[in-house]
Amino acid sequence: MRLILDIALTHITGRGRQTIVAMLGVAVGVGFSIAMAALMQGGQDDFVRQLVDTMPHVQVTDEQRTARRQPAEDLFSAAAISGLRPRDDRRGIINPTAALSWLDGWIPGRFAATLRAQGVLRYSGQEVGAAVIGIDPQAEPRVSPIIGDFRAGSFAALAAGGNNVVIGDTMASRLGAKIGDTITAVSSEGLSRRFKIVGLFHTGTTARDEGEAYVLQKNAQILSARPNAINVINIKLDDPNAAPTVARRIEAELGYKAIAWQEANESILEALVVRNVIMYTVVAAIMLVAGFGIFNIISTITHEKARDIAIMKSLGFTETDMRILFVLEGVAIATVGTLVGWAFGLAMIYGLSLVRFELAATGQEMTRLPIAWSMLHYLIAAAFALGSAAVAGYLPARRAARANPVDIIRGAT
């Protein structure tokens, strides 16, 4: 085996310029594939992290996945019900105290109950449609995504006394209001109540910044004429990946619709899977192109060394030895190219990580590109490079191994 390796190195070094070009081709392919994988994986991880951070891991609402079974369906084997309307549609989670106590006994995380109602906010002749959300100022900060986005005030200011409200700065700008001003909230029930602005937040998400207003839970219940009612329970788990299991247990026990963040963003997560398939397909294509360079080098060597091959076979080298020889040459070129490509990829990733820019249009600032530093990217690129090199070396090696040494020496081929 040592002799075969020495012969392989001699063949490679004998064609220095072509070997260097093939190695550089592999190095560039490996480097760019590593950088591309790091950038795309970093963007995906950052996007998923924002999903996890900006929305509840599990959200329980007062809805049900299927229509509630009617008593007539239990009494009669055949029943057709149409146009059914409740006499008094007072939606909300039934017996919320018992439900919250049950959740508190086993949920591996934090939760907060809210009452979400639709209404209109008015100030100085301006009107803005908004979701008026009644919260508990002590529980909400443990699950709210906007707790770190306050420009002024906080949730705690809601309990400072009086009727207070926290709104987004974009909504305040549309109303022409500021901290300390008093606005009027009108619910879908036609009830109105005046609130003093005690906090402003900015998340960079338009739907929140100009469409949500937070008040004390009791004020939301009074405004919507629904005393002691809640219709949403937001849950943050210690392990976000456990959300589907927790949601299924809650739905089975309480009967209300419980949506895990994975279910709420199912189409987005499926798109990310498709993007990963595309990414690794491109990586494979890059390595395939580099493999053609190696194939060209090995094919040239086998053609030029035909008489050497005949002599070695006449000295007792087997067809298997010939295959191993030229496969080793291809793998050797790919190995050196992979090591250089690793260094090139690392340098590219480091350079990309230093890129700084801002996205002022959305109100959010991203100062650096999201980069994923993972050894897996290096190993995948190396596997593609070595695999393509082995195939590129094997194809001409198989032809050379089958050649008849007598015909070669006589000049028949």
Distance between the termini: 28 Å
Q: Taking strands numbered 1, 2, ... along the chain, how are they ordered across the largest sheet?
A: 2-3-8-5-7-6
Main sheet characteristics:
6 strands, mixed, barrel
Mean pLDDT, nearest integer? 82
* Form type: elongated
- Give the number of helices: 14
* Classification by helices and strands: alpha+beta
Rg, Cα atoms, Å? 34 Å
Element-level helix/strand string = HHEHHEEEEHEEHEHEHEHHHHHH
Low-pLDDT runs of 5+ residues are none
Family: Belongs to the ABC-4 integral membrane protein family. LolC/E subfamily.
Keywords: Cell membrane, Membrane, Plasmid, Transmembrane, Transmembrane helix
Subcellular location: Cell membrane
Protein name: ABC transporter permease
Q: Summed up, what is this model?
A:
This protein has 413 residues and is of the alpha+beta class. The protein has helices at 2-14, 16-54, 71-75, 96-104, 169-175, 206-209, 217-223, 243-254, 261-264, 266-304, 306-314, 319-353, 375-402, 405-410; strands at residues 58-61, 109-123, 126-135, 150-152, 164-168, 182-187, 192-201, 212-216, 232-237, 258-260. The protein is built from 14 helices and 10 strands.
Verbal overview:
With 413 residues, the chain is of the alpha+beta class. The chain folds into 2 domains: 2-52 and 268-410, no CATH class; 92-230, no CATH class. Helix content is 53%, strand content 16%. The chain has 14 helices and 10 strands. The chain has helices at residues 2-14, 16-54, 71-75, 96-104, 169-175, 206-209, 217-223, 243-254, 261-264, 266-304, 306-314, 319-353, 375-402, 405-410, and strands at 58-61, 109-123, 126-135, 150-152, 164-168, 182-187, 192-201, 212-216, 232-237, 258-260. A 6-stranded mixed beta barrel has the order 2-3-8-5-7-6. A hairpin with a 2-residue loop joins β2 (109-123) and β3. Residues 19-252 form the MacB-like periplasmic core domain. It is a multi-pass membrane protein. The chain crosses the membrane at residues 20-40, 277-303, 324-351, 371-395. This is ABC transporter permease. One of its GO terms (cellular component) is plasma membrane protein complex.
